[in-house]
Amino acid sequence: MATLFDCEIDIHLVYEPPMQDSDFGIVLTRGFQLPFAPCKGLFLHNSEWDELADGQGVELTNVVWDMNRCVFLLQATYGNVDFPVACIPEEIRSWLGRGWEWGSYMDQYDGGDSSDDPKRKRVGQYEDITAGIDSDVVERLHTIPRNERPTAFNVFFDALIRQMAVVSCSSEIAYAMDKAGRYLGHGRVEATDENAGLLWYQYQKEYCDMGIVDRLKWQDKVSRYPTLESVVLGRSKKQSNARAGAK
After folding, report:
1. Cβ atoms of residues 50 and 99 within 8 Å
2. Do 195 and 160 fall within a single domain?
3. Which of 197, 193, 163, 157 is nearest to 177 (CA)?
4. What is the percent of the chain with per-residue pLDDT over 70, rounded to a whole number?
5. 154-184 tens-digit pLDDT
6. One domain, residues 145 and 62
7. Burial class of residue 159 in the structure, from the number of CB atoms within 10 Å of its CB (0-12 exposed, 13-18 middle, 19+ buried)
8. Residue 120 scores a pLDDT above 70
9. For 2-52, how does the pLDDT look when each residue is reduced to its tens digit (9 = 90+)?
């Protein structure tokens, strides 16, 4: 009988725009087994993991053998270029529906005890932020002024800003999104404002010229925005019942 190696993999979902290809992205995780020891550069494909039908799979960018837990810790990145920003929550939920979990294998090591499995939140009821909106409008929701967009999308947009500001490499883009209330950068769908490009440049330069104290103040402000996890996972059944009872 072949030896099976326990593996835990983090996949970094990068949506460009608004993120950059070098971004940390949104991290999902899962465990599985392999009949051989994995190595950096190996491509893994599983039709139950993602929606790719070409069999190319995802490339392992980092491989660590945890000698204490006897498990391989793996990392991979999955890039999505010109994916509709408004559809990101539903797309992530489709990954969760295929067995992935929100979080990282690094959660296992929080607190110094890696023997206990971290508690993962379950997928709850989600308010579709694209419901009832024409597909062409959905494509450009992130470029539309904030006061012309559905509240549910604005909540997600704030959560995305927080995610990018706190855990990513795109803080200057997140700052520009926060200042403008929308995305004014490059992409397949762009804002049509005559001065959009100039404003986008000015906002990013403003961030780059800020001192560390002002940057920390801004990060503290956006840290009060909803978390992307709470927006994507939605409300639990208990929370939904409590909300319904309060009406």
Report:
1. no
2. yes
3. 157
4. 86
5. 999 999 999 999 876 789 999 999 999 999 9
6. no
7. buried
8. no
9. 789 999 999 999 999 899 888 889 999 999 999 999 999 999 998 888 766
Q: What is the pTM of this model?
A: 0.85
Give the residue among 13, 3, 85 at the shortest CA–CA distance from 36: 3
For the chain, the maximum distance between any two Cα atoms, rounded to a whole number of angstroms, is 67
Q: How many domains does the chain have?
A: 2
Residue 156's alpha-carbon distances to 65, 106, 149, in angstroms, are: 36, 25, 11
Residue 145 lies in a domain: yes
Residue closest to 19 by CA, chosen among 157, 173, 153? 173
220: tokens are 């503290």
One-letter amino acid at 175 equals Y
Neighbour-count burial of 86, counting CB atoms closer than 10 A to its CB (0-12 exposed, 13-18 middle, 19+ buried): buried
> Residue 84 is part of which domain span?
8-112
